[in-house]
Amino acid sequence: MKASLFQDVQRDPDAAAERLLHRAHNRDGLPEIVIGVILLTLAGLESMAMVSPPGSFGARASSWGLVMIVAPLCGGSTWLIKWARRRFLIEKAGYVELKPVSRNRLILAFGIAVVVAVAAAWAGSRGALPPSSWVLAGTGLIGGAFTAFAGRLPRYVAGGVIMALLGMILGFCRLSLEMGFTIMYGSIGMLSLVSGCVVLLHFMRTREDQ
Amino acid sequence: MSETISAKIQQLAQIDRVIHEPARLMIVALLAAVAEADFQYLHLATGLTKGNLSVHLSKLEGAGYVEIEKSFRGKYPLTICRLTKVGKEVLDRYRKTIKCAL
Lengths: 210, 102
Fold this sequence. Notes:
- The structure holds two protein chains of two kinds.
- Chain A has helices at 3-11, 13-26, 30-51, 57-93, 103-125, 131-151, 154-172, 177-209, and one strand at residues 96-97.
- Chain A is mainly alpha-helical.
- The longest helix of chain A is centred in the middle third of the chain and has 37 residues, at 57-93.
- The relative contact order of chain A is 0.15.
- The mean pLDDT of chain A is 78.
- A three-stranded antiparallel beta sheet of chain B has the order 1-3-2.
- Chain B contains six helices and three strands, in the order αααβααββα.
- The radius of gyration of chain B is 16 Å and the shape is elongated.
- Chain B has helices at residues 2-10, 17-20, 22-33, 39-46, 50-62, 85-101; strands at residues 36-38, 66-73, 76-83.
- Chain B is an alpha+beta fold.
- Chain A binds chain B through residues 1-2, 5-6, 9-10, 13-14, 16-18, 20-21, 24, 86, 90-91, 93-100, 210, and chain B through 22-23, 25-26, 29-30, 32-48, 73, 76, 78, 80, 91, 94-95, 98.
């Protein structure tokens, strides 16, 4: 019997349940791998749009790529993760289905996003920095806060802090939106992909040992 | 003051004994954290032996706290467990009693 789990459950069942939920969700690294692939695809499409002249094949391919590749990837990512787990991981690690995200959390995340957007718009209107800088900094802060808030595990919190810092640095370097987003999505996507692969490898090795 | 403390402590005597057992409390806490999980996941997460886990799940099912659904995934049996509404209420009551008393 796992003593630490029992101690946690007795001390604070709510906190233990919450921690277990996040551990269950993130134990195989698949969500990070999928997020990494989505962000790297976004970075690729952004850079393609950046180097292609308006109306060219590259610019159109970039726009279509957002609709035809990124949107289905985002929409189908939950299904994809569930399918991969059922197909390859159930026999090794068992099956676990997550609870849906609570409405309160969604409302809170939306509220934070609105507050940051309003603050960025107000700061932009004062002309201290170009609006694109505030958009980049705001995206980094919102994305970082959401990553840390949703993931809860230390590696997610670290990822969220890195994203927030990167957003602010890119914003204050006065880069264009395309360039800023390419760097941000590319770096965070790569980080997420590498972290997910490491977790998945560790997960597979641990399960093989048991 | 001492009467209030005494009343709080006395509430412990009314704790649900089915859920109070450490192994069953772990199972219920695990199932409370997710929508549903299979036998293998519970076995790995709790560290209980398969026989022990099976006995505890039967007791929880008998008390109406856990719902067990047996099916097959290909040739392999798949036992899916989820907490019932009664189970959630009992865990909530248990948590409140423990917090109140300690």
